[in-house]
## 1
Amino acid sequence: MIKAVLFDIGGTLHTVTNNAKLARSFAKRLERRLEVYDIHITTPYDELAFTLHENAEDYKHWSEQTLRELPNVKIWNEYYLKEYHIGEEKLAPIARREARPDRRGTELPLRLRARSEQAPAEAL
């Protein structure tokens, strides 16, 4: 029997803090993860972290204005990594698996920890 249903709308249960160290760590892990899929980004980590944050803010603004959400692969391609012109086809395998920059505070460490137990270290 279901006793309760929780909906996280607009950061009610999930919040993100803008921590420079966490943002840099996320950028570093993202770059390594992309390399596994033959996607190479050579932007310095601090700059990549800043770009991801700005692009995530752009997506958030668009989403709030339109009251729509895009599939993850479109978000990564059209917002988060738009400067790199990677394409949805290359991003599709990882867009389903990776945390989004606007949610990096909780999802990525948990997912990377779970993967590190299953995947070779060089893949992380």
## 2
Amino acid sequence: MAVAPVSGEAAQLAELVSIELAREEGLVVVAWPVVSPLTGKPLEEIRRALKAETVVALAVRGGTMTAHLFQPDLDRKAWGGSFTWEPGQERELAVAIARGARDGIAKLRRPRPGE
């Protein structure tokens, strides 16, 4: 899994979300220094370059953070959320995003009807 900011504004939070996700047993998260140079690249390019099965994409728009868990090669979005926060609440925001991403991963791991 890789956590990728869509814009530079989301970069600091991407690192915090990566840290939170890395705490999850059995989940491999690409290290932030490896992901950082790919900021702003298309998700499929990031996934391919990092050999990541899934990508958490983060973007800041008008004071709102959006986060989406994608499986880009299959064009599947497993989870998405929109969050507002105040300065100083970045860790709480990272925890909430990581929780949502973990739920999305569980959803992706479940067999789809007809599979």
## 3
Amino acid sequence: MASSGNRKTKASGGSGPVKERVGAHRSRLRAQGLRPIQIWVPDTRAPGFAEEVRRQCLLANASDHAKDDQAFVDSVSWFNSDESR
């Protein structure tokens, strides 16, 4: 893939090259006390992903600790909760 260099894009509506706008945006976020991180997560589109999830869920469900584990998840989850977020 070719690099876009310092060209301006009309579609973005910005006032400068993308690199400068991104840099300014990141500087504003850092000034708010935030920092960027990178996180790698499983690719849900990968072949075999659904099968592996099912395999692990069945193992977890068959565990001697399944009820306690689910109770913990329920206690810290807002999913299906009436509590406002």
## 4
Amino acid sequence: MYYHYINWIWVVILMISKDYSDLYTFRIKQLCKQRGISINKLSEMSGVRQSSIDNIINKRINNPGVVNLHKIAIAFNMTLAEFLDFKELNEFSFEDNDTLEE
């Protein structure tokens, strides 16, 4: 029940902010919760420094880079395509977001 509540909160935050970097944060947190993995454990499993993952989660990095995302995907036993294939990212509209650089 708690997980579904947290997931719903993130969906609302994403709908309000529509910040592209929130999508990666949401996905990483969602998968960590689902699989019972801490950020520290994800760092160990992926080979991505914990500080880098913390920077992604805390939105100090807006573009985490494909290599780090690929390593994180592999840690979740997913391809990069599977990691990036989720509803909130698929429904993101660049036209509706004027904060992105062109």
